Amino acid sequence: MITGIERIVFTVVAISAILLFLKNVFRLFAILCLGRWENRFDYLWKRTGFLLKYGFGQVRVMARKFGINHFFIFWSFLTLMIVYIEFLIHGIFPKFSFEFLGHIPYGIITAMADIMSLVALTCVCIAMIRRTFFRAPYLSVNFEAYFIPSLIAVLMIAYFVSGSTAYSVHPPVMAAWLPVTSKLSLFWQGMDAHTLHIISKVAWWVHALILFFFLNYLPYSKHLHILASLPNCFFRNDTLTATVPRLVFRKGERFGIAKAVQFTWKDILDFMACTECGRCQDVCPAANTGKVLNPKELIHQCKVNTFINGDAIRASRPADMLAPAPDDATEVVPLINGTDKSVSREALWDCTTCGACMQVCPVFIEHVPKIIQMRQHLVMEKAEFPHELITFFEASEQRFNPWGMAPSDRTKWTMGMKVPLMAEVKEAEYLFFVGCAGAFDSRVRRSTLAFVNILNHAGVSWAILGNEEKCCGDSQRRLGNEYVFNQLVTDNINTFRKYGVKKIVTQCPHCYNTLKNDYRQYGLSVEVIHHSQLISTLLKEGRIVPDKPLSEKVVFHDSCYLGRYNKVYEEPRQVLTSCTTRHFTEMKKNRENSFCCGAGGGRMWMEEVSGKRIYLERTHQAMATGASLIAVSCPYCMTMFEDGLKDEKATGKIQVKDIAEI
Predict the structure, then answer these.
(1) Confidence band (pLDDT; 50, 70, 90) for 1?
(2) Residue 565, class by beta-carbon neighbours within 10 Å (0-12 exposed, 13-18 middle, 19+ buried)?
(3) H or E stretch covering 447
(4) Which helix H or strand E contains 562, and what residues bound it?
(5) Which position has the higher pLDDT, 44 or 582?
(6) How confident is the model at residue 416 (pLDDT cuts 50, 70, 90)?
(7) What are the structural domains of the chain?
(8) What value does the mean pLDDT take over residues 438-457?
């Protein structure tokens, strides 16, 4: 028991700590409110399911082996929260206890607290041992990485010392429900009651003070995710974010993100929720090949920048104000600058927008849209972008294709063939959106012709737009040139509506994703399928039959925009299974864990000037399987693998083919 004076001190400290914690929470909420509005309050029941499955269930956390350790720490603290509430109230009102719940319910709570305290202590020790002796490259080593786990360890030790010494002096009523404490009490046998009483009291105060300190250190530490991760799981997107918000072009509008407070409140919540686990860094193709971009650091820099600028804005307004920051809010530290409190320009251009970071993030942080929106600012407001994109943007705007070829050349690949045009047939079941690569790239044209042969052989009703087709705008949008994208999408949709298009098939995953997801923002409502899906259907229906199954060893590469963004994994594999005499092989990184070829996010049109080339890394992964044929379902991937094989002088030994060719 603590004395009356000690109780007064405890009450003052406890109330002060709680009030300070509430003030800190209000600060976080006020900074959150500085962001722009975004509606994440739809389908609330489904979101509740997200919270239960991914927040409390820790499903993504446990997707990796060591995640089970975090799972136990998480649930230990959830369990101990009940005991800490009792501890706090009992410290102020000594007669308070949860015993009113009944002997057995209270006994279960007591036993769970005792066991979970040991679990928490064990798990934080394991975590520190791992970080010290078996550290994965993506794990940070800094003061906080050890300070917080050490604090938790001391908190648990203080709990056991206080409880076991008190138990030795006078076993409590609930002694039978304290399996760990009762065993530890044996350690103190032989010591006099006075000494045990002093040790117990000191440990009790250590436990109390650490608890109050931790409560208020939390909002300023990397462990802020303890408060923000559960809401972030609730407000996550239903699927992997495959697009960015549409921009409206009118006088006075800003384009892209130039300041931290121009992000939405959900973006700012993302920054707060980051656990700095490093999983995004581990799977990022840029980070894995020695580029400047590190998605973990990028989110951390955005978080630091948001807090610095957010606190400055709040200092200039009433303390109780909850409202978005004005567009002309002054920045204390620029968002895009390259310092440790800003995002590096080079890092923004390193991104391939493959989505691997978002796929593995245990708290569903949306990295890619933030990068694209910062690119929008650099491109449309600052005209600061890699010099090789000048030609790309000009060609896209003036000739409606990245190659800068004359629009009239878009149908040259059809020479000598009977290819139906929408302008002539007026109506067809499928519009074959050929895409720029399929029309202009000499190598990809062979894939286009192979797919056309399949369509004709199967008797599919189809047609192309011919010279009326324009670039889908995928690279333009992901490189930040929303203006040119807006021009392309508007023209294409008008053409689709002109012919009453209901179904579109495309061989390019970038066209597929853009037509399916981005164009929806402009009111396009048509069925969009990838050629692998249509070929798979035709095979199942018996409308086509492979006449010469391959006997060579085949390895398949998953396109990021077909697989990770749109979950099309089975259809390409079904096609390959029907076309080969033996089961094709897989690379170690496949399906949702596939490694990017390096061409996404507009990187197809840029040079890699730092680190190892991404396409070369993926080519090495394919060559390691011993396959003599690399199967792809994307024109960009084909180009990257062709370049990789040339670099490795393996062009004659290993082939690259689209599944339509196979």
Answers:
(1) low
(2) buried
(3) helix 442-458
(4) none
(5) 44
(6) confident
(7) 4-33+64-229 (1.20.950), 260-381 (1.10.1060), 389-658 (no CATH)
(8) 95
